[in-house]
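Posting this for the archive.
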Amino acid sequence: MSFLQIHPADNVAVAITPLPAGSLLTVNGVSIALKSDIPQGHKFALAPLQAGSNVVKYGYAIGHAAAAIAQGDWVNEKSVKTNLEGLLEYRYSPVSVKPNFADRHMTFKGYRRKSGEVGIRNELWIVPTVGCVNSTASQLAEMLRAEAGESKLDAIAAYSHSYGCSQLGDDHENTRKILRDIVLHPNAGAVLVMGLGCENNQMEPFRAFLGDYDRERIFFLEAQKVEDELEEGMTLLRELYARASADVRTDVPLSGLRVGLKCGGSDGLSGVTANPLLGLFSDFLAAQGGATVLTEVPEMFGAETILMNRCKNAEVFDKTVRLINGFKEYFAKNSQPIYENPSPGNKAGGISTLEEKSLGCTQKSGSSAVTDVLMYGERVEQKGLNLLSAPGNDLVAATALGAAGCQMVLFTTGRGTPFGSFVPTVKISTNTPLFQSKPGWIDFNAGSIVENEAMDAAAERLIAYLMRVASGEKVNTEKKNFREIAIFKTGVTL
């Protein structure tokens, strides 16, 4: 296969492999001569398009022709312009949603926590309440790793960030929410919360903010209140380490699994291979009683009605409308264009407009009903497909997914990236050349879908792999100890 017309209504096709100028292709019985070289993942016109006429991909308009486009022309960001505009009014037009997977009654090996939640890792974390103690937290983690030697835990990690003080309003509350969610995350068998003592994010109010936490597994340390914070920290960490080290994996139904869905460095094959593959996995996990979470709200613009019409009821539809328009208002409030997307890397990979990016991005949602909408910092409560308010920024969005309670994040990419969030971050390539050139980044190749593998077969392969990851198999970011968090900021820093 050298090219693909994704939907019968499309007036463009996608190059699966690089196509040289002059190539003669037959599409639906019509012979088309390519006017120029078409890079992999990029589009070419199947018919002449007049200026202003819609360019159609995935069966939807992805923008309009900026000028006349000839049959066989390369169609890219220079020749296609967005149709999108500002705030919109929406009408709920629910569609029938039918499960495409049965409950297989499968299990994975996880860690049952006192809270009733399940972890797929057993790690010890040091979580600073404020950025001022980042280095101390990191030093303590290094000291404990050295002392533990061949650790009985999956990881010992400190999670640095820049906030916890000099923030106001929503920014301060968002920092508290994300840190709370990390402290309570089931992938941590034990946590040391470390503060300075004079920060805005004071220890006692933060402790109360945690709610009913496990006092045997979550300890607190304020550096200004002890003579030697390293000595005191190690005393607390040794006790936490001993307790967490006794934990063992047990069989857990897949209903206990929550998985984040994310993409970054997308290309023209994202919506053809890796993203629809994640959509199948999302449908599969929903059928098992588990939960998936889709975020990157700006990358829903232009495809939002697909999600809205799959909302399980009018209440969830209304929450989805507020999610979309609220993020548009955020752009407008900061005097920024709402549709300033895609990125240079996206364009180089074959994505021309935000509509095209969004239609590919939302493929990760599969075809299941939308069961709930979460604001930034909120945690998953409903099974099935959830939507989460967070930006497209890779590290901010991945952190938000983990904070929502996802035990792992599935990250599709056509360009590649090495980063890892604080939960296992599974990199899934949209094309085989990326998988072959970056084996230290990519964990799973979906590029085979346009080569010789059926989508259903790839889905079964992905399900089997992710069950191993959930049961303890480490992904590349874990092997390299790439672990970071990033917190969303919108306002003033004092």
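Residues 314-333 form the longest helix (20 residues). The chain has three domains: 3-81, 123-246, 252-479.
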